[in-house]
Amino acid sequence: MTKTGAGCIVRFYYHMYLKSGSAWTGSLYLKLSYKGSTSNIFEVSSSKGDKWQMAEVGLGHLDKGH
Q1: Pairing label, strands 53-58, 9-14
Q2: Quick check: 28 and 41 in contact, CB under 8 A?
């Protein structure tokens, strides 16, 4: 994408379940690369229960010149 607006969002679902006794602890990152720089715009770690979770991340105006 080259431009976004105030209402531009990324919506996705994720499932992060840590079964009791498991040693795994993970993280999920959503990264945005724009004009040569990269930043984390979403991060979640550890178990969130045995169900799908919805996330929405607003992008705002990436290209302020338009």
Answers
A1: antiparallel
A2: no
